[in-house]
Design goal:
The chain is α+β, with helices and mostly antiparallel strands. Helices cover about 45% and strands about 20% of the residues. Helix 1 packs antiparallel against helix 5.
Length: about 200
């Protein structure tokens, strides 16, 4: 009798945990409402802090303080807390048009001017599978002094930047698997079913 009640209690707990997970995914992590301002340290060579919209409350936080600010079929914008770095990957072969669009979106998301954006640490890459001609270079923001035009050839640091570009793209792809609500829910469901079966046999 005691074992039977114990199994029922275990099943109830697992079911409650499952629905709690679904509630979290649908209500909190995946909302797109931006809140108050917060400050990000300026990049090396720049002084002070840059005040931006607090995207942390409206973005998906994954793996060691990594946030997805925006993602679509044309580009992906992420923020890495440890290095105060905005990582941008262009996923559309029309790189110039996509760059212009994502830069406007970035300014809107952060709620800052171009001048302030140029003080932030930003890396922008084009993966080789999107366009081999432009792969291997950190282009930055086009309106900043250190921004590189797509039609400009960069001779130095190609191998290093290519590796960084591939690493950033691969990391974003891998995390995409785990940030999908359906994938997470299905994974959780499988774990819960396995737990129910395990305890039901005891």
């Amino acid at each position: 009798m005691f074992n039977k009640n114990k199994r029922k209690l275990t099943i109830i707990i697992l079911i409650i945990s499952f629905f709690a997970l679904l509630f979290t995914l649908s209500g909190g992590l995946f909302s797109r409402q931006f809140g108050k301002k917060f400050e990000i340290p300026a990049k090396e060579g720049e002084d002070g802090m840059i005040k931006v919209n607090d995207f942390r409350k409206g973005s998906e936080k994954l793996l060691y303080g990594m946030y997805f600010l925006d993602e679509n079929q044309n580009y992906t914008i992420t923020y890495y807390v440890p290095g105060n770095l905005f990582g941008i990957t262009i996923n559309n072969s029309e790189v110039k048009k996509t760059r212009s669009r994502l830069e406007k979106d970035l300014l809107k998301i952060l709620g800052i001017t171009k001048s302030d954006a140029c003080k932030l640490k930003v890396s922008m890459f084009v993966p080789a599978y999107v366009n081999e001609q432009y792969a291997g270079t950190n282009y930055g923001l086009s309106f900043c002094p250190d921004g590189i035009p797509f039609d400009q050839t960069v001779s130095g640091g190609q191998a290093e930047n290519s590796s960084a570009s591939q690493s950033l793209s691969l990391l974003q792809k891998l995390i995409n698997i785990f940030k999908n609500p359906l994938t997470v829910a299905l994974g959780a469901a499988l774990i819960i079913v396995a737990g129910i079966v395990l305890f039901a046999r005891r």
